[in-house]
Amino acid sequence: MTDLAIHCRQLVKRYGTEVLAVDGLDLEVKRGECFGLLGPNGAGKTTTVEILEGLLEPTAGEVEVLGMHWAQDADRLRERLGITLQQTWLYDRLTVRELLELFRAFFPKGRTVDEVLGLVSLEEKRNAWFEKLSGGQKQRLAVACALVGDPELLFLDEPTTGLDPQSRRQLWDVVSDMKAEGRTVLLTTHYMDEAERLCDRVAIIDRGKVIAQGTPRELITRVVGQEVVEFAPPGEVGKSDGLDEPALVALPGVLGARHVPDGWALTVDRAHVAIPALLAHLEAKGLLPLARLSTHSATLEDVFVTLTGRNLRD
Amino acid sequence: MTSRSPLLLLTVARLKLFFREPSAVFWSFGFPILLSIALGIAFRDKPPEPIAAAVQAGPGAERVVASLEASGQVKARPLEADAAKSALRTGKVAIVVRPGATRTYAFDPTRPESRLARTVVDDLLQRADGRVDPTPVAEAKLTEPGSRYIDFLLPGLIGLNIMSSGMWGIGYVIVEDRTRKLLKRMLAMPMKRSHFLLSFVFMRVLFLAIELPVLMLFGWLAFSITIRGSLLLLGLIALLGAFAFAGLGLLVASRARNTQTVGGLMNLVMMPMYVLSGVFFSSANFPEPMQPFIKALPLTALNDGMRAVINEGAGFAAVAPQAGILAATALVTFVAAVKLFRWS
To answer: Do A52 and A155 contact (CB within 8 A), yes or no?
Structure first.
């Protein structure tokens, strides 16, 4: 048995003669990991996912899912996959319980309706019609429908787009549970915090190609590099504070320094070393207490901007 | 948890969805019942109206009026010449009698009731004048259930219902599911495609098992309509009709990407049958050259077949052609729909 849940090579999907949605995409997703496909709208994420789900035929390329191929093993594959589409409309006037029972009936083995209701915290809505649910509840139900077959591999296509914070957190818990049970999750998102929090590895997709791949941390340190420490000395904005760039860069752990409108931004590789050294330096200059001190990690958004010069949500 | 048959659950889900849509329930049950009540009242059997006649004033007029009135079949009134003429022209009377040695009947031969009045009035007056009929005559009056307008209408309305609930209940629902990507979602499961399509057909069969008895029971309670032929045969014809229109519904829905398109397609298919297939009036009213085409329409076959069983007590051999048309329609449309079906 291969240790790859998904393996695709040189995947191409062309619509008509004009549109090249996927342009030679390579992907390897290991069993038991949560893998994120990131990219702006129209990058080819959904097309890629639907090919992997066996809902679209690729124009060219090889696809292997759980060691099987769609052409020969479609029935066996479907029994082992859980799928949520980007937007799922279910039958308006069936109740949550009726929908889950219906979906459950298609799988030879799986979880009980009560179990999956618990997983997505919809127990008290079990007798509500689908049309009466909120957007977040509908999305959680869609995920529940993907879980009834007890899938080895779960596809989530933008599961939290437009959701309230509570529903987002609940869906994140579902993904964490799946991972804890050794199952594989492939999710697409354009929320960077979501990808950084949930995904073991991510691939950034642009114009139908993977432009970077790795763990979120790896990508950030490799492409952008560092964490960012920002501080503002006391006193009026714009007045000379007596600090200079060479002195700041000379501090241990600091890689770079630049002026920002109300102070300084330092890129650092070891914040725990750099911050005490910075504070000592500032104290010596008589610049404490500071008006502002903050640190933030460089994000995947920064990675995308660095690689493409564009924002993810353009 | 024991896993239940997905086909059964799909079918039951479709029935639930139908009965949770009040407007769909109204169109399937309320509408045909209301329509047959309205039309049943409008065309109820009335006692024959007396013939309205005017007798032009003059010598002998009183005797003529008295002879006509005595029969009970004619309502006669004496009128002056001008008034009588105007009453005939405006249709208040069907005939004007001018007494005399030669009796004159003024009537409008283009009006059937006027021609009838001439015959009846003449017959009555000749007898009053002493005519003796050479052959004695006895009358047997028949107004039997089975030959009234409502007997004709109700099977037509049931046929219409089987057609429109099959087409809308399947065609429209499928296209709506397609636009909502629900078809795609279902396809992402280990679901047999045939189960998905068959669930619509089975839903129609179960639905028919409710629809047909309810409407026939209504016909029996409200209009004493009885089924002269075999109940089983009626069920078979209706079932074949439901299959035929389920197949047609699947076929019109097999490619359409939005509900407007499928709505137009369905009207295109159903409109000729509304008019030609003998729902409200007999399709025999259309010219002879059109008859083979009209007879081949599935709704004509369904209506004619059900009427033959309900009103004439026809056996299987008599309705075999209709059953054949319906079965063939069902088979051809279902196979074509499965071949053409667009899932995404």
So the answer is: yes
**CB–CB of A91 and B20 under 8 A?**
no
Residues 171-190 of chain B whose Cβ lies under 8 A from any Cβ of chain A: 180-182, 184-185, 187-190
B163 within 8 A of B302, measured Cβ to Cβ: yes
Cross-chain residue pair A78–B180, CB shorter than 8 Å: no
Side-by-side strand order, sheet with A227-232: A254-260, A263-268, A227-232, A292-297
d(CA B178, CA B166): 18
Asked if the bond preceding A289 is cis, omega within 30° of 0, the reply is yes
Q: pLDDT digits over A98-154, tens only?
A: 999 999 999 998 999 999 999 999 999 999 999 999 988 999 999 999 999 999 999
Q: What is the pLDDT of residue B143?
A: 62
**A-chain residues within 8 Å CB-CB of B176?**
none
Q: Say if the Cβ atoms of B185 and A78 lie within 8 Å.
A: no
pLDDT greater than 90 at residue B96: yes
Size of interface A-B (CB pairs under 8 A): 71
- Burial grade of B178 (CB within 10 A; 0-12, 13-18, 19 or more): buried
Chain A residues whose beta carbon lies within 8 Å of the beta carbon of residue B17: 91-94
Domains of chain B by start residue, with CATH? 5-43+145-340 (no CATH), 51-128 (3.40.1710.10)
DSSP A312: T
pTM of the model: 0.77
Neighbours of A297 (CB within 10 A): 16
Minimal CA separation from B253 to chain A, in Å: 18
CB-based contact B16 A79, cutoff 8 Å = no
The ipTM estimated for the assembled molecules is 0.78
Interface contact B188-A53, CB threshold 8 A: yes
Of B9, B20, B181, the CB nearest to A87: B181
* pLDDT attached to residue B144: 65
Taking alpha carbons only, the member of B164, B189, B188, B186 closest to residue B271 is B164
Integer Cα distance of B163 and B159 in angstroms: 6
Give B35's pLDDT tier (boundaries 50, 70, 90).
confident
Supply A58's token pair: 């690729």
- Helices B298-312 and B316-340: angle between axes, nearest 10 degrees: 150
